[in-house]
Design a protein that fits this description.
The protein is of the alpha+beta class and about 525 residues long. Strands 2, 4, 5, 6, 7, 8, 9 and 10 form an eight-stranded mixed β-sheet that branches. It folds into three domains: about 170 residues, no CATH class; about 160 residues, Phosphorylase Kinase, domain 1; about 80 residues, Orthogonal Bundle (Transferase(Phosphotransferase), domain 1), CATH 1.10.510. Helix 2 crosses helix 9, helix 7 packs across helix 8 and helix 14 runs antiparallel to helix 15. About 30% of the residues lie in helices and about 20% in strands. Strand 19 and strand 20 form a beta hairpin. About 40% of the residues are buried. It has 15 helices and 21 strands. It comes from Rhizophagus clarus. This is Kinase-like domain-containing protein. One of its GO terms (molecular function) is ATP binding.
Length: about 525
Amino acid sequence: MELEIPDSNRLLTERELYQIVLPTPLLLSVKSVDTTISASRKVPNISVLSWDDFLAEAFKKSSSLDANNSIYKRPDFSTSMNFLSVEDSVTDMFIDTMNSINNRRLIHLQSPENWGKRYLFKGVKGQPELIRCSADSMDQLKKGDASRILAIIEIKPEQLINELLPDGGLDLHAAYNKAITSSDDMYTQHERIIKMVRQTFGYMVVNDLRYGILTTYIRTWFFQRDRDNPNIIYISPAVRINQNHTPTHASFLECMYYHETLSTDDSTAHSSPPTDSDYNDDAEDGNDEGNDGNDECDDNNSNDEDDDDDGNNEGDSSYKSSKRKWVTLNITTQSMEKKPKTQNDNESENLEDMKNYDYNQFSFGDMLGNGRTGAVFAAKLCGKTGALKMTDLYKNEYLLQETLNEIKMYLGPLRDIQYMYTPKLLKFGVLHEAFIFILTSLCGKSFAKLDDVTEREKHLAIEGLQAIHARGVMHGDVRLENIMINRSESTSKSRVRWIDFGWSKMSRSSKNFNRELTELRRLLGMAGHGNPKK
């Protein structure tokens, strides 16, 4: 009997398309690198539940795939990359597969959908590798102007996951539940498992999503938040990329189809609104600029946008407290663990000392812009409204260090010029054990977005940079995008402030300071400067 060879020219039905068995790529050796060794432990560890009926329901749902209309070309994987190494290669292969199969169906829905990079949806919070989003029209979707996010995907290399979850061992939900309760000597392994789940869950929470995916491409886990209690999460058994359709089991692509239909029909899961206990719990937290430990966190202290603070706070006790934080605030990373300890290491506070805030304590407003750490949003926390930046806690060590460095600068050398020449630091801490955040007062628009910057405002920008230098700080990123103007009434009363101190550092070099001033004058089109115009 001759083996039947599929006709590559024959068009496929939707059902045939989703029953294609995907090839398993080769794995190249990679060196795994982690970021933080621990997150805040100030919230309870809650067990996750097994999504027990996922595979059965996915198989049942597969029968709804169209089996009559042959309209799809058979995808050609012969020219595709056939090996996986670092995380980026997993991301590329996964999106290539989605483009070859799933997206061909999704773009023809009434509200077209697409799997793609996070840039498809400008309002995405955090930095998930991939998202699925929808738009009002296909043209809008193709332009990267999606109107709604439906699900997120977090990517990890199979080489790393296989060390933590070897074939034949515990599945992810069981391994996570063991990790959060274990007290044995497998600390590093358990922490990695905890981080993977919390990071994926964190992206779902901050984007108000019910559904998410954690995948290595070789293996995929599907996540779902409970409808009645969004803090409860269900994780499916692992589904392998080459899982075949059988009379009793769905293929991998059919599992994707089931997850896609669920998140199309019911994508949103809002966290519960904040309670009085959420607000009162914050009263003992010191993660507040100028906080004396008695922050009542009510709506009566929200006038941060337009107060008349002259910034002259050097003599008060809260400055001394904040200065101590600036010296000791630190985060320990895996790479730092390998370095020899110095005498100052004993003074360091770990990230564990930062307060963890639940997502339901935040109210999010409009997106204000984009930076290296992702989108910046208007947000309200404990009655304080400002600009919120979030940095993934478990992903990019450099961005994490930048955010912590910015917090240090606000708490230390820039403490007495806040609101006058810089925004006011309102809050900082850990968000849902998945992000570091910093909330600063709103500052208007950047020089880069205005074409009518006055000479007076240019001189105020120079004056602000000189004030920063006078405190021994090099800004480190002199750009028009980092100079903000708040014109409350007129240009004659405008305030000019500097933002983004992630690259700032202490210096005593007048040469370095002069270099920044020269660059600023060049950007402003000024050969020199005199006194600010009144």
